[in-house]
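Q: Got a minute? One more chain.
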Amino acid sequence: MKKLVLLRHGESVWNKENRFTGWTDVDLSEKGVQEGKDAGIEMKKAGIVFDMAFTSVLTRAIKTMNFALAEMDQLWIPVVKSWRLNEKHYGNLQGLNKAETAQKYGDDQVKVWRRSFDIPPVALENDDPRNPRFERRYKDLTAAELPLTESLKDTIGRLIPYWEGEIKPALAKMDTILVAAHGNSLRGIVKYLKNISDADIIELNLPTGIPYVFEFDDDMNLQKDYFLADPEKVKALMDAVANQGKAK
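A: Always. Here it is, folded:
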């Protein structure tokens, strides 16, 4: 039996402030650091031993992975970082408070921007300092690869080729792999693996810092999936994520 563990990064400073983050590189909050450690503790209790890990190029995901692996005495495993695992780019919303934005545009519109399948937020201008082309970590990417905004559909478009070309083949050769990433990039993987419809994916909200385990047979057929946490706790955390985009 092969295992894929998806881990959304712990609470970031902007999560705490209820801001749209996207590709903005913000650090973990104190709570987020502890969530990373707690995730490692739970995975160690479950007897999980990783062969390798994948993560994005954003600090909050990298640090969450490292805090978790440190608790498991597995910091030494090979790690591959890719921009393709980055969070969905939130365009001109990046940095704005979600509740304040909902007060201005309405809860329904913000839900569309946050969770819909194919409707992106308003794009950044090309000369906006938030444009990723100004960051050294993306210097080798083409203009076509660097988004100014993204829908979940767009995120899946740059993510699934990476799943098929890198992560899935690695898992086929190994036993257990960790993917530490973000709410929407992981939603994209979950949608793909579980064949969730475009309409139903809007209701999926992944909690921070809770390991999500997928088990496959040796032919890479999905057998089952589950969170390493009490179901009531997971539901409460999912509801809290959903409520971030509502006017207070």
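A: Helices lie at 13-16, 30-45, 59-71, 98-105, 107-115, 152-173, 183-194, 231-243.
Q: Perfect, thanks.
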